[in-house]
Amino acid sequence: MRKKISYVLIFIFAVLSLSKAEDLDGYQLFDKIVLVVNGEPVLKSDIDFAKEWYKISDQKAVEDKIIDSILLYQQARKTGISVSPNEVENAILSIAKANGFNDLETFKKELEKNGISYSKLKEFITRDLVANKFLRFYLREQITKGVVEGTLEDVKKIKIIFISKNREDYDQVVKKLQKELNKNNFSEYATRYSDDKFTAENGGLLGEVKKGDLAQELDKEVFSHKEGDIFKVDTQEGTYFIYIVAESRKLIPKEELTKEELEKLKKAYDLYLKKLREKAVIQRFE
Questions:
Q1: Which domains does the chain have, with CATH numbers?
Q2: Residue 220: beta bridge partners?
Q3: Which helix (H) or strand (E) holds 248?
Q4: Which of 15, 95, 98, 187 can pair with 128 through a Cys bridge, CB separation 3.0 to 4.6 Å?
Q5: Contacts from 265-273 at CB under 8 Å and sequence distance 24+?
């Protein structure tokens, strides 16, 4: 029997390396901007924290790791993928327990004693959890090829159009789509108007989702609609127009993969990150 490795761990890629609190002793906050990734600033305090947290001393290597995490997080948010506060808290509690602390309050006090920002830790954990969840979703198609064991689940193939509240013509575009959008022009309008450029390139196609893949407000609406429906969902970031292209039941694999399968997914992961970087606007400051 070939050795199995936890499916969840593939996507971590050492993202959540466990660090003793004393290893971060002396950490201080700085407010100098070091990077800007698609308009999102990265402070020197982020770099310093990441060096200790990821155990990477090389400046460029840690910057690249942060850039990849931010790009995945940004793309996840555009496609409606998020994690709940409870998921974040459970992840931090697991890290606390792995470092000898049985509750979050004690862990927080120890962090504060060593000059470590709990909010910074929470920010890193949230971003990495969202990024990893998105990767599991994005690479699922390759994982499910040839699957013979797993759980039979309801899946929906969907297309999306995301209109960001940051755009100047937000109200105008939303009204236009509400009035004119239908299944025949959905792909055309997605390519023309969607602020999620990756799905826009494919006529808005996000792919197959199962319950729990998307942010709660989107997940609830997607699984309360049927094949052929087009509907609107308003969120804090903007408005989603969603088209249920098809629905079916599919075998979702167990969360275990072989080493050979991991290598295949690692290549797909690297290729996807390369595409994200090519489309990104990244500024570095001395």
A1: 4-140+265-284 (1.10.4030.10), 150-253 (3.10.50.40)
A2: none
A3: strand 238-253
A4: 15
A5: 265/10, 265/139, 265/142, 265/143, 266/10, 268/139, 268/142, 269/11, 269/13, 269/135, 269/139, 272/138, 273/68, 273/71, 273/72
How far apart are alpha carbons 239 and 242 in whole angstroms? 10
| CA–CA gap between residue 219 and residue 224 (Å, rounded) | 9
Q: What is the pTM of this model?
A: 0.62
Q: Looking at residue 104, what is its pLDDT?
A: 86
Band of residue 254 on the pLDDT scale cut at 50, 70, 90:
low
Please check whether residue 68 is in contact with residue 52, taking contact to mean a CB–CB distance below 8 angstroms. Answer: no
Take residue 57 and report the two structure tokens written for it.
């001393």
176-186, pLDDT tens digit by residue? 999 999 999 99
Determine which of 18-32, 137-151, 216-230 has the lowest per-residue pLDDT on average. 18-32
Rounded alpha-carbon distances, angstroms, from residue 64 to 56, 126, 154: 11, 18, 37
